[in-house]
Amino acid sequence: MGGLTKGKAMVEVALVGGAHIHTPSFVKKIVGRPDVKTKYVWDHDEARAKQRAEALGARVADLKTIWSDPDVPAVVICSETDRHEDLVLPAAKARKHLFVEKPLGLGARDAYRMAAAIEKAGVLFQTGYAQRGSPVHLFLRDHVRKGTFGRITRVRMDICHSGSLGGWFDTEWRWMADPKQAGCGAFGDLGTHGLDLLLWIMGDAEAVTASVGVATKRYGKCDEFGEGLLRFRGGALGVLAASWVDVASPFGLMVTGTEGHACVFDGKLYLKCEKIAGADGKTPWTDLPAAWPHAFDLFLDAITGKSGVPLVGVREAAVRSAVMEAMYSGARRSRWVKPKRPPARRPRRRA
User: Fold this and answer.
1) Who's near 139: CB < 8 A, 6+ residues apart?
2) Does residue 344 fall inside a structural domain?
3) What are 229-262's pLDDT values in tens digits?
């Protein structure tokens, strides 16, 4: 998929909201590219807007200026999650290509509204699900889809760090530990990456549940760890673990099937499957596809005209918000919950 800017030497973008913890790394990526330049920065926090603008060599502007400028075909939204809808809807109406940091929405309702608006506008969309581009994940998805492992019975994904223990969200990023602004705590924040990977590999989840907890109380009642269960179409079961209170996180992804088994440990893939010559499970498997660029780099590639860029579909991103919302509902109610399904597709405009 290519952007509207093919053949243009320099593409100008706007940063709309710079609150997310990943914003500084995105700023460095933009500054390091010769084909992308930031023209405007907006944030509801004036001091933060000035800080981001200075780092990007851009100027602070109001939203009306950004939406109405035809020379800015794309925007990067890294605001607090509860501000996404109020920014995404006018951006889509202005037909701006959109990178929206994950998660897309607080839950199903706002996420599906945003997805519908973006689909109607026919613009490019991307979000920060970088786990897809890992060589081991690309390899496993391909073989699961091919049926190499037989019938898949169980999958598990762990994604954890020591954010609470290290006080990562004490100051500048404090909103990320406020579920009213972020829509979730640790389980949803980190878990959305693992959830995307599980759904990307296995397909739709028919029902989900979870349990979450608090370990340090550093951020009050905000959850700091959790485990979720997913029941996929076809009967396979999934487990998702996410945490801000792990001092180590060596385990990654596990896939178990009737004809094969795969486990990622310390970033290395251990594979046992008779259908793959040499896959005895004893030594790391290294015959893997090349890694994709980071999800944000893929967005920049797409808006500058590169074709065939593997972007995350906006409907996929919205489903992740809906499924995570259902998992939290399951945690509160101690029961299985069916995620809300997306509405029927609307006719898509050409970008």
Assistant:
1) 269, 285, 288, 289
2) no
3) 999 998 999 999 999 999 999 999 999 999 999 9
Count of H helices and E strands in the chain?
Answer: 11, 13
Rounded to 10°, the helix 314-333/108-121 angle is 170
The Cα–Cα gap between 100 and 284 comes to: 35
166 Cβ contact list (under 8 Å, min separation 6): none
Same domain, 140 and 103: no
Alpha-carbon distance of 273 to 150, in angstroms, equals 10
Bridge-based pairing of strands 152-160 and 251-257 is antiparallel
Order of strands, sheet of 97-100, starting from the edge strand that comes earlier in the sequence: 59-60, 36-42, 11-18, 74-78, 97-100, 125-126
Q: How far apart are the first and last CA of the chain?
A: 11
**Domain of 246, in residue numbers:** 135-290
Judgement on whether residues 114 and 38 belong to the same structural domain of the protein: yes
pLDDT given for residue 2 in this prediction: 38
